[in-house]
Each structure stands twice: as C-alpha cells, then as structure tokens.
Fold this protein.
Amino acid sequence: MSVMRVLRTMMTFVFCWMAGVLPATAAPAAPDMPAAGPPSAGKLPSAVVGAPPGLRRLTDTYLRDTSICSGPDGTWYMTGTSNPPDGIRLWKSRDRDHAAWEPLGIVWKPGASPWHKPYMAEKCPLWAPEVHFINGTFWLTYSFPGWDHWNPKNSGCGLLKSSTGKPEGPYVDVQPDERLGDEIDASLFQDDDGTVYFLWHNSKIAKMKPDMSGLAEPCRWLKTGVDDTNAKHHGPACPTVCQDQFHAGYEGISMFKAGGLYYWCASEQFEGRYSCAIATSRNIYGPYSARYEALPYCGHNNFFQDKNKQWWATYFGHDGGAPWRERPGILPVEIGADGIVHPQQRQPTSTKAAAGTIKATPKPEGGSKKQMSEAF
C-alpha cells in the first residue's frame, strides 16, 4: 500500500469519526478467504450507458426505491418511497406485462412505536420501504432520515411483520422501543439454510434471531477487497456516509444469491449516473470482489426471479440522465458464466409501448405473449 493511500485512508477514517458515522461496535474481522470471482482490480467491466435493454415502466404513479416480491399465490407485490412519504403503500399484480397494478392503499403508518417520536415531531419522511415474503408471512422494512436536520447518525430503520400473513396486514413493529438499524435503507436477505439477515445503509449486515424478532449479532461492515479510487465513481455523499472506499456503493443496500455467490448490491454514482453497483463473494461476510457498475441508472433496486428462474431488476430513475424519473420499472437481467450481472440483451418477451414506456426488444426466436405470461 502506497504512502498516499495510507494517508488517504487515515483522513477518511478521521473525517467519518468526526461526522459520527463510524459504528459504535467494531466490526468483526472478515474470514480470511479470497473474494469470489471477477471483477478484479484493473479488469472492471464497462457499463453500456443508455437505457438498459428491455426496461419498461410499470405504472405512471410516483415511486422511488422500487421493491417487488412474489407472494405465495404467485401475485406480485410492489412498494417504495411514495408521495407523500407518510406511510407504506402497496400495489399488486398478477399480470406478466404488469399492465395492471391494483393499489392496496396505505397498509401501515408510523407513529405508534416509541422510537418514532423524534421523527414524528420533526415530520421526517418515511423512506425506502421494501416488501418481502419470508417464513410464511409478509415483512416490510422502513427508514427515517435523521430527525436532527437529517443528520445521518440520527437516522433509523425498522422491520414490520404482518400478524395475519396477508399483505394488507395489520403490521406490527418487531422492535418498537428502539431502531433496529442506525441508518437508512433497510433490506432483508434469506440464505439457502433459512437464516435471515438484516441489511441497512450501504454495507451493514447482521444475522437475525430465528423468529426475526431482532438481531442475533452485532453489526458487521461488508468490504470489497479492492478500493475504487476513481473520484468519478463516487457520489458526493460518500465522504460523509461511507466508512472507507472499500464499499459497493454509498446507500441502497440489497443482496441476492445465485450460483453459490453472494451478490452485494448498492447504489453509487458513476460519472453522474445513479446506478446499481455489485460485488461478489462466496462468504456472506466477505471479503468481496472489486465492485462494478452492473445496471446503469438502476440505483436503489432489488432483484427477483419469476417461476421460470428469469432474473429481473427493479428501477425508478433518480438522476437527470435516466430514461425516466421517479416511476417504477423493471428490466430483465442475466448472470454470465463469469458471474457478472448485466442487462439481458435477448429479451424474454415483447411488450406494447404504453405512454412514456421504453419498448422492449422482441426476442429473436419469438414466442407468444401468452406463453411468456406463464412465467409469472
């Protein structure tokens, strides 16, 4: 490590310590094992800038931080940051082309849990809810920015459980007396063995108790094995909210698993594009590979599979160069033999272009819309 890199790392540490964004509990050391798969330093894949192939709008409803999951009956559920951001709204659809989304309205509003009090007093918005179906019921994550002038160290996030197993709830806060996570952008990940992890911010993770009533271990910080020193690959918030440059992104964490690899996803700005960045590992706690810009303009998204095992990513559009802004969308993605995630070039379906929608490219070998609809 060069002298300049050492000095830069020390300066970043001191800045974050003064800003109060370092964790109160030191993260346990990551297992001593190599990061899994590409990319490696100096071999980062180049993202194709422009509208990702197959990107299509779902509705013309305002929504940020789009989150989609499948319920037990095959119905798809969607949520995200709504306007006004005063509660968690859900939509549902059984349509493969997602031409029709039925609003379920507000299924939960904050304020009942004691830890919400300072956020309610300052009228803080509710940000980035996610919907998950795990262990036979629905779960919603939620976040608040800092009540003290949106100070990151006063941000918080929590987890809700449907007491009936239904998407409409009612929902109960699993930890009403104090925040479950100390920053924003909460998410859930369930591993192959059934273990559930609570993720938040850009790189924080902790195993949950078997009944998901709280965290079973201290917070850990995920890290990449290679730092990205290109200033154009970092958003302006990075120096304030990131522990160091060994991160996948500066916010919007999520995770999925495929082919034995853990895919740590986060939002980052690459030359102004608010994109989905990814790093991989064969151990959930890392260390992780060098990160790369996987999906341009698709920052703060999540990944899901249909019943045909086709991978999809959500979208909402944040920056001025995005195909559209603050409306939910999806696009098909694929994972190459090298483990790299990228937009799928050969589309799994053809879609009518609704107003404001980017038309998907028809799949070369054809296939009727009805046949492809059966995937969902």
About this structure: The first strand starts at residue 56 and ends at 57. DSSP finds four helices and 21 strands in the chain.
